[in-house]
Amino acid sequence: MNEHGMLVVVSGFSGAGKGTLMKELLNRYENYALSISATTRAPRTGEVDGKEYFFVTEEHFNDMIEKEELIEYAQYVNHSYGTPKEYVLNQMKMGKDVILEIEIQGALKVKERFPEAILLFVMPPNAQELKRRLIGRGTESMEVINARLRRASEEAQGMEAYDYILINDEIDTCVEEMHLMIQVQHKRASNNMAFLSQIREELKNI
Ligand code: 5GP
Q1: What's an example GO cellular component term for this entry (predicted)?
Q2: Is residue 37 in contact with ligand 1, taking CB distance under 6 Å?
């Protein structure tokens, strides 16, 4: 029914398990594409340029802003992150639901520009579990982990702006819930305006 794909914004505290969740969703279902962001932060061990992120300099990032190549951008713990526009719009035109794994400021900007987007917030079952996962990941210093936990506390203030909350306790359940929420969003009347107009026309002429 939907001619175009939808934007799916996924936010959540650092360490909530968004990465694993996205990977599993893309493994299971074909209709999703994952947007690759640009960032000025350094790659973590194992991260590849063009796969997890496009790792760019401050100058390059500012250039992208100036040329309006980003759908949105924001600062997160001393670094810039942004969503390149071209790939996202092309994938949507091809009917794919495009997932943006971004933080809250960016998420709110997307909702302003694309009101039909669905905003999901992923969280762990409790705060202790969040800290445990961040430390267990072993990719950040204690200083960065603490900065990220402080940021989580700030972001927790804005969670009401999201459409749905996803508790990532058990990954299998969480993936299926996420898929279901997106499918339901596709069925919203406001996301099917072309189809509604068509039915109205047909009813007039019947
Ligand atoms: P990380 O450094 O852990 O990969 O990402 C830090 C935060 O930046 C995460 O909350 C992630 O969702 C967010 N982020 C990643 N890419 C983007 C983006 O393109 N735009 C915005 N606004 N946030 C992003």
Answers
A1: cytosol
A2: yes
